[in-house]
Amino acid sequence: MRREFAATLARVTAGRGVEKEDVVMLLTAQPGEEEEALYRQADAFRSRYVGEEVHLRGVIEFSNHCRRRCRYCGLRADNNRLDRYRMTPEEILASARRGVELGYKTIVLQSGEDPWYTADILAETVAAIKELGVAVTLCVGERPREDYELWRRAGADRYLLKHETANPKLYARLHPDMSWEKRLACLRWLKELGYQVGSGNMVGLPGQTLEDLAADILLLRELEVEMAGIGPFIPHPNTPLGDHPAGSLDLTYRVLAVTRLVVPWAHLPATTAVGTLSPNGRQMALRRGANVVMPNLTPGKYRPNYQIYPGKICINEEPDDCRHCLEGMIRSLGRVVARHPGHGLRRSPPTKNWKPRIRVEVSKLLQS
Is residue 363 domain-resident? Predict the structure, then answer.
């Protein structure tokens, strides 16, 4: 293990501050001893801050229409090879009800940016789902502040709006009709309105550097997010970036682990994208800082057409099958399925007597 890496890991885990260069150093963890130490610490932080429970948050992908032209996304408005669909509010509510029957404590309503669903339609849908006794997360992109306010009054608990990259120039190249400043403004509106806010980024975007990824992690800390979705870039053939290679799964795991150290209170999903790139991708993520899995509740006839990226896992699974499969996976890791919604834990400090596990290892190294 490099002495500089060991010292940086010790400093960060001891809570003695973190600078951008520290994050970059941790992201360079080399295979073997360094990665093992990083992942061990991420798992220790996960256990200490958010416990042994894994939260299952059922996702309903209710529309694949999108007005945006993001260069990496299969839902982009310019993709004319995609069969478009919209679920009715009744279909959405039926899917949410099935999720409740399966024991999910959070329902996530996700779509492209589809203005067909007015603020009132979504408010009524949120209010109906809240009557089922679950938390509701919305993930429908950038909308006016008054829409966010209406949905919050209707009962929405959380909002997921990924910043995708903290590099404004890279953001502009990827989002030709969008503004990085507007994205951050929306995130701040959501916090002001009392949402538990989630954001996140992709790993392996064309032109992305380790410094960019470090900025992503520090932005998540600055925003004090309650949830951070971190997954690899997976190219879709019907997009301008279709010929670029996928993001590195190993680098994605390192970003996830470092995020756990820098933003220890956040809920971090083992994303479907890591499971798409590797059969045991979600299990590995759960060992490296993650504590959330997001099973799909979308009706089977719609699932194949929600193509943010191709080859997504679990397309042909029924919700019941997915539920039992995930519980078995979680139990095999010595973890348990959470029986509560998992509201934000940002204000829960670690116990005074807890010490990071890396400290003994570093002291031995520095004495050698």
Answer: no
- DSSP code for 269: B
Indicate the DSSP class of residue 10.
H
DSSP result, 120-188 = HHHHHHHHHHHTTT-EEEEE-----HHHHHHHHHHT--EEE---B-S-HHHHHHH-TT--HHHHHHHHH
Residue 215, token pair as written in the block:
């900025």
pLDDT in tens, 189-225: 999 999 999 999 999 999 999 999 999 999 999 999 9
Is residue 364 included in any domain, yes or no?
Answer: no
CA 171/CA 254 separation, integer angstroms: 22
In a domain, 267, yes or no: yes
> Domain residues for 181?
3-346
Within 10 Å of residue 32's Cβ, how many Cβ atoms? 9
Q: Please give the angle made by the CA atoms of 76, 79 and 81, to the nearest 5 degrees.
A: 140
Q: Measured between alpha carbons, how far is 153 from 261 in angstroms, rounded to an integer?
A: 34
Label residue 118 exposed, middle or buried (CB < 10 Å: 0-12, 13-18, 19+). exposed
Reported as a single tens digit per residue, the pLDDT across 172-186 is 999 998 999 999 999
Number of compact structural domains in the chain: 1
Instruction: Please report whether residue 359 resides in a domain.
Output: no
Q: Is the pTM of this model over 0.90?
A: yes
> Do β-strands 106-111 and 53-63 pair in parallel, antiparallel, or remain unpaired?
parallel
Q: How far apart are CA 91 and CA 93, in angstroms?
A: 5
CATH of residue 88: 3.20.20.70
